[in-house]
Design brief:
5-stranded antiparallel β-sheet; alpha/beta; single chain; 539 residues; globular; 24% strand; 5-stranded parallel β-sheet
């Protein structure tokens, strides 16, 4: 699959011109129509000054225009910067400036998301942003265009030699994607991936799923994550299948679509499958068309995995990976034993190498715990404008995952923990250091430490311990309200302990394992209750 993302769609449009590529509410878009819309958007962006290697963000929920933009931007050698629709002003300002974003594909508002208000509020702080392409609305502060404007202005793409040459000059090894993912230190970093890395990884996962052109995939996971854009959009396009996205996950809606469209595949994080199983017990849904799908994003309870296979009739596969690895690294296969399919994350995918190493980088014997490292075509090109962070993460071609794992003598992997200090909230990666940096800016907070604690519904949630300044009368409600609206809701602590001190080592370093134990004990004893943001209480 040595091709570009833009060429991939063109090839499918020629192979399956009348086949439905996207089903969304009352819209049905064929591969030929999808490619034509992508060509027009790409042509428009080039005419409006978007050059090769310029960054274009997609800031939308799961709507067809997201898919159109995913294929359009790479056609002209520009770079896609996927942006979570739930991001708030502070996150947008940082990400757009750090990535040098020049244009944004968005809309005025969609449901609870007020995209344009945030952009116009942050206008003075956005250094490079000039152009907005919007589904609806009009901006007074940016050059803004509707998709109708775009399709009209870009319609003569076949007659524009400059445009055709620009497309010809795009190489599969060019960087076409920067997705921001946090680390254990500092703000989020932009992971750079090429066309080839994305398309091959999608292809290899699809091969393991035995995907084919008559598959229909229900997509409840966000397009702004690799699970959505690589493992869903790109995977289905590689095989000529049909994409059925949900704007936001809702278990009834997901199962309705499986039944009404006779979907053969469904993806999701464990939390999504758990909710679907609960709904399926209460109501009678016909899921007999389901064949397979991918479960990823966080560790899956064994019983949940068994129920998905037996009760939903979905022969689901588990993928383990990380954005820096394009993202898939290991997968379970259909011919694996039930035990291996529910208790491991499978074996390494084609054309990759993995090993488990100790802190000195030495490979450990089978069955022993160490850090999983991976080498192959799929290792990221690096973090955007962060060479030092790249060097810390990639050593002699080996990408350090930060995940603690065990691998048996057959090559089956179990993920046993996280070396990186990360919390997975309902499948979303949340990094404590980022939240700590926001909180420490509060003038009444002297010290802060953030950890993850177990949660029945979401798997984990964020908990914060705060040491206020001497004369402060700060409450846990104050802490939550300070963050709410400034960062994504998954990052807002559900529990806050206002305390006199934090558990530290002899060297003065916060011992988060002790803090986590303390907070979990307080929660179990009822000393700590969940804190709901004041703005949410008003609704």
């Amino acid at each position: 699959m040595k091709t570009t993302i833009g060429q991939l769609l063109k090839d499918r449009a020629e192979e399956y011109p009348d086949k439905e590529a996207v089903i969304f509410e009352d819209r049905r878009i064929t591969y030929e129509e999808l490619n034509e819309k992508a060509e027009r958007l790409a042509h428009f962006l080039m005419k409006r000054g978007v050059g090769r290697d310029d960054k274009v963000s997609i800031w939308l929920p799961n709507v067809p225009e997201w898919i159109i933009a995913w294929f359009a931007i790479p056609k002209i050698g520009a770079v896609v910067v996927p942006t979570d629709p739930w991001y708030k002003g502070g996150e947008i300002e940082y990400m757009f400036n750090d990535s040098d974003t020049k244009a944004v594909i968005t809309t005025e508002k969609y449901g609870k998301y007020n995209f344009l208000d945030i952009l116009e509020d942050k206008k003075s702080g956005l250094d490079e942003l000039e152009t907005l392409v919007m589904i609806d609305g009009d901006s007074e502060k940016f050059d803004s265009f509707t998709f109708d404007d775009v399709y009209e202005e870009g319609k003569d793409w076949e007659d524009d030699e400059d445009y055709l040459q620009r497309k010809e000059g795009t190489d599969p090894d060019d960087v076409t994607f920067i997705l921001y993912t946090s680390g254990t230190t500092g703000k989020p970093k932009g992971v750079m991936l090429s066309h080839y890395q994305i398309v091959k990884n999608a292809h290899d996962q699809g091969e393991i799923l035995q995907a084919k052109e008559d598959d229909k995939l229900v997509i409840p996971v966000p397009f702004s994550h690799c699970f959505g854009n690589v493992m869903s959009i790109t995977l289905m396009t590689v095989f000529g299948g049909t994409m059925i996205p949900l704007v936001e996950f809702e278990p009834h809606k997901a199962l309705d679509l499986v039944e009404s469209e006779k979907a053969t595949m469904i993806h999701g994080v464990p939390t999504m499958f758990i909710r679907e199983l609960e709904v399926a017990k209460e109501e009678d849904y016909d899921t007999s068309s389901l064949r397979t799908g991918i479960m990823a994003g966080s560790s899956c309870p064994v019983e949940t995995m068994k129920s998905v296979i037996n009760d939903l009739g979905c022969n689901v596969s588990i993928t383990y990976g990380l954005t820096e690895a394009s993202p898939g690294v290991t997968m379970t296969r259909f011919d694996d034993s039930v035990e291996d399919r529910v208790e491991t994350v499978g074996r390494v995918m084609p054309d990759q190498e993995i090993k488990i190493v100790d802190d000195e980088g030495n490979e450990v014997p089978p069955g022993e715990t160490g850090e999983l490292v991976v080498k192959g075509y799929n290792v990221m090109k690096g973090y955007y404008n962060k060479p030092e962070a790249t060097e810390e993460t990639i050593e002699d071609g080996w990408l350090h995952s930060g995940d603690l794992a065990e691998m048996d003598e057959r090559g089956y992997v179990r993920i046993v923990g996280r070396k990186k200090d990360m919390v997975i909230v309902g499948g979303l990666n949340v990094y404590p250091r980022e939240i700590e940096e926001y909180l420490i800016e509060h003038e009444e907070i002297q010290e802060v430490a953030v950890v993850g604690v177990p949660d029945e519904e979401l798997g984990e949630v964020v908990a914060a311990a705060v040491v206020p300044t001497e004369r402060s009368d700060m409450t846990s409600q104050d802490v939550v309200d300070f963050l709410y609206g400034e960062v994504a809701s998954a990052k807002v602590p559900r529990y806050v302990s206002v305390t006199d001190d934090l558990p530290v080592s002899g060297r003065g370093k916060v011992q988060k394992f002790r803090l986590r134990d303390q907070l979990e004990e307080k929660i179990e004893n009822g000393e700590l209750q969940k804190v709901v943001p004041t703005e949410v209480k008003k609704k």
